[in-house]
Design brief:
Order of helices and strands: EHHHEEHEHEHEE
Number of helices: 6
Mean pLDDT: 91
Number of strands: 7
CATH architecture: 3-Layer(aba) Sandwich
Low-confidence stretches: none
Strand order of the largest sheet: 1-2-3-4-5-7-6
Distance between the termini: 27 Å
Structural class: alpha+beta
CATH topology: Aminopeptidase
Number of domains: 1
Largest sheet: 7 strands, mixed
Strand content: 15-25%
Shape: globular
Length: about 190
């Protein structure tokens, strides 16, 4: 495994968009139009469902160009093989109310979404992306990193938030559990 991880940048905005628009989301067709914007919005779920892929793609590219949407892309040579949405927790306004009691006045990074090319799943790509995100959060002076993985044993292709085990391997602790969702926390 000789994959390269690059931080999302304006130069990679179109690479990001093309990567997501060319994946097969038959297992969850509504993901095909998301372009990782869901957690960056606070519109109602009905309004979200009415947004088009073109709208979300355009907004994602605009936010990447403006430096507001952050994360990491993984490459095998020139081929993009994975994406990780990682940013300041405050940028994920859809979950803000759910995490405010944890974040409080701290500077907290959040890793919320992984999209790994099907041919590269179970090869450590998500772990590589997570490792880079954590290292960069630490370098930028963040106090902690959180994630909220969902345990879906019967549909592993839907584990887009990563797995509890993956976070534990990196030193995260489970600090809350609600149903099949866990809040994982890593103090930096």
């Amino acid at each position: 495994m000789n994959y390269l991880v690059k931080p999302l940048s304006p130069e990679l905005a179109i690479t990001f968009a093309k990567y997501l628009e060319n994946l097969n989301f038959d297992h969850s067709p509504h993901w095909a139009t998301c372009f990782c914007r869901f957690y960056h919005t606070n519109c109602s779920f009905e309004q979200w469902q009415n947004r088009t892929g073109a709208e979300n793609r355009s907004e994602a590219v605009e936010q990447i160009l403006n430096g507001n949407m952050k994360g990491y892309l993984a490459f095998d040579g020139d081929k993009c093989i994975g994406w990780c949405n990682a940013n300041d927790a405050g940028e994920f306004i859809r979950i803000e109310k759910d995490i405010n009691h944890i974040v409080k006045n701290q500077k907290v990074g959040c890793v919320i979404c992984f999209v790994i090319h099907p041919e590269y799943r179970k090869q450590g790509v998500a772990r590589l992306l997570l490792k880079q995100a954590v290292e960069d959060f630490k370098e930028k002076g963040f106090d902690a990193v959180l994630s909220i993985p969902v345990d879906i044993k019967d549909a592993p292709e839907k584990l887009y938030r990563g797995t509890v085990n993956m976070y534990r391997e990196y030193g995260f602790e489970e600090i809350e559990k609600k149903g099949n969702s866990s809040v994982m926390w890593l103090k930096l």
